[in-house]
Write a structure and sequence with these properties.
Strand content: 15-25%
CATH class of the largest domain: Mainly Alpha
CATH architecture of the largest domain: Up-down Bundle
Number of strands: 11
CATH topology of the largest domain: Multidrug efflux transporter AcrB transmembrane fold
CATH superfamily of the largest domain: Multidrug efflux transporter AcrB transmembrane domain
Number of helices: 13
Helix content: 40-55%
Order of helices and strands: EHEEHHEEHEEHEEEHEHHHHHHH
Distance between the termini: 63 Å
């Protein structure tokens, strides 16, 4: 990127150099509360130092102060003092302005670009402002601003005041940038608090607040608990009312569908977030229903005396169409959420981005994989031998596409 100097109208002397940065993907990971029995100015200064340390020491990329207020320095002049020194308020103001204004130093011309030069004269602390020479009297005595004025640093007034545990507080937002996970960011912040913050900053305390990583963990645990509960209930109920073989393979189809959906999500560019985890919780019940319907249909034909292969073929033939229609209507119900425009559309897209891949994998598992397992070619697995029975003499004459898929899949099994 080449740099060029400004060739248009003159830039005001008070203007600062522009800051150019690339847009990056960010996500809030957690908030930090800096609090203590300290003036808010000192808390804000401590928070600024913590931000620098989090970037330099902890390796974080983006940390911002919430409800930040600008630092301001007040200069209070006593009227009696001005009369004694023979100064006016306008003269003092001119002296302060002359010593706190950046001055242009011209332009440096090179063969590649032009660089503007500027001298920085801003005094940002009360001590530095106090060194401004206001006047030198006839006797050579110098009068500085600190001699005639009360200089104090404060925060600009605002509409929001933060308190934590009945003490003044400053809130910092910590972001995960460019693929960083909230969990990794939370671990880095916890290590910083444990190893650095407790010993480096006296008089203030640092505490994690609004931990999004913990929210992710809780949502993930909810998904795992629901999935495990579904697995156990399906296994027990089908074991009691059908057969151990049907119970085993129907239960095995639940994690297969979820992991298959995860793979499709990755290929489609979706990520794991709060909305996608919520969508996974929604799909667990649908995935269980598909497998149970197909497993029960095959078991029904086995009870009528048909062979495992024949029962699997007939079960796939009779329930393949209804399953396909059921899954299709569910997909059509979630599909419009992917066409919502604007920023809300990006949020709603996460739900069909999870539901549709999981349902597609569940459909394939229920129509192809599950019938192949229940066709009698998995007897080496404990419990599946209960499905075996004498083969039926009369085999179906016509072979549908679904039957052909099951036969081909079954013939590849040992």
């Amino acid at each position: 990127m080449s740099k060029t100097g400004w060739t248009g109208s003159p830039v005001p002397r008070q203007a600062r150099a522009p800051v150019i940065s690339l847009s990056v993907e960010t996500e809030k990971a957690l908030s930090l509360v800096v609090y203590g029995d300290q003036p808010r100015v000192l808390l804000a200064r401590a928070a600024e130092n913590i931000i620098k340390d989090l970037v330099a020491r902890a390796g974080l990329t983006r940390v911002e102060m919430t409800f930040s207020k600008a630092h301001e320095i007040t200069v209070e002049l006593d009227e009696n003092t001005l009369e004694q020194t023979g100064l006016s308020l306008a003269l003092v103001a001119d002296k302060i302005e002359a010593n706190t204004t950046d001055l242009s130093g011209g332009t440096l011309y090179t063969s590649r670009w032009d660089t503007g030069l500027r001298t920085s004269a801003q005094k940002r602390t009360p001590s530095r402002l106090g060194t401004i020479l206001v006047i030198e009297n006839e006797s050579g005595q110098m009068v500085y601003l600190s001699d005639i004025a009360d200089i104090r640093e404060a925060l600009a007034p605002g509409d929001v005041e933060c308190w934590f545990n009945s003490k003044p507080a400053v809130v910092l937002d910590v972001f995960a940038v460019n693929g960083q996970s909230p969990g990794d960011v939370a671990q880095m912040v916890k290590q910083f608090i444990r190893e650095t913050a407790k010993t480096r900053y006296n008089g203030v305390k640092v505490q994690i607040f609004e931990n999004q990583a913990q929210a992710y963990h809780n949502r993930m645990m909810l998904l795992v608990e629901n999935a495990l509960t579904g697995l156990v209930l399906v296994l027990l109920v089908l074991w009691l009312f059908l057969t151990p073989g049907v119970a085993f393979w129907v239960t095995a189809g639940i994690p297969v569908s979820l992991f298959g959906g995860l793979m499709l999500m990755y290929l489609m560019g979706f990520t794991i977030n709060m909305l996608s985890l919520f969508a996974f919780i929604i799909t667990i019940g649908v995935v269980v229903d598909d497998a149970i319907i197909m497993g029960e249909a095959i078991h029904l034909h086995r009870d009528r005396g048909q062979s495992p292969l024949s029962a699997a073929l007939k079960g796939c033939t009779t329930m393949g169409g209804p399953l396909l229609m059921a899954v299709s209507t569910t997909i059509l119900a979630f599909l419009p959420m992917g066409f919502v425009p604007g920023e809300m559309g990006n949020l709603f897209l996460q739900i069909p981005g999870v539901v549709i891949p999981v349902l597609l994998v569940s459909l394939v598992e229920s129509l192809v994989i599950l019938p192949a397992h229940l066709s009698g070619h998995g007897r080496s697995i404990p419990g599946l031998a209960l499905l075996s029975a004498p083969p039926e003499k009369d085999q179906p004459n016509g072979i549908t596409l679904c039957q052909r898929q099951v036969s081909i899949h079954a013939s590849c099994l040992p």
